[in-house]
Amino acid sequence: QVRLVESGGGLVQAGGSLRLSCVFSGQTLDYYAVGWFRQAPGKEREGVLCMSVGGGTTTYVDSVKGRFTISRDNARNTVYLQMNSLKPEDRAVYYCAAGTAAGTWCASDADEFDSWGQGAQVTVFS
To answer: What angle do CA 99, 10, 46 make, to 5 degrees?
Structure first.
């Protein structure tokens, strides 16, 4: 069974950057599509970005396009979320999630993913 552990959250001023890491253990990252989700206070969890097994990426939230980037280092079994030009509205708990699907599969629906990290709090102040 795969286990995901996130790190890198914190408090940052608007316009700043953070990088979240999601380390896989128990299984190799090579066979998983990985999504980053976020849940703001009082809101539903939403899919932000996804990277397929094949390396293709999809951004589901228009407001993060050009600011957030997902990447993976299979040798380190780690997925990253680089967040630049952060805004107060980016404040949320961010989760990484893994889905067992081959090829170009990605999704923004949390129900499509099998395993989840514990979440990392990101707070942006103006």
So the answer is: 35
Residue 20, C-beta contacts closer than 8 angstroms, at least 6 positions apart: 6, 7, 8, 9, 36, 80, 81, 83, 94, 96, 120, 122
pLDDT tens digits along 26-78: 988 989 999 999 999 999 999 999 999 999 999 999 999 999 999 999 899 99
Retrieve residue 71's tokens: 């990447």
pLDDT tens-digit map of 103-113: 889 999 999 99
Contacts 24+ apart (CB under 8 A), 45-50: 45/95, 45/110, 46/108, 47/107, 47/108, 47/109, 47/110, 48/81, 48/94, 49/81, 50/106, 50/107, 50/108
Sign of CA dihedral 69, 94, 45, 118: positive
Lowest mean pLDDT among 2-6, 46-50, 61-65, 98-102: 98-102
What are the tokens at 69? 């980037």
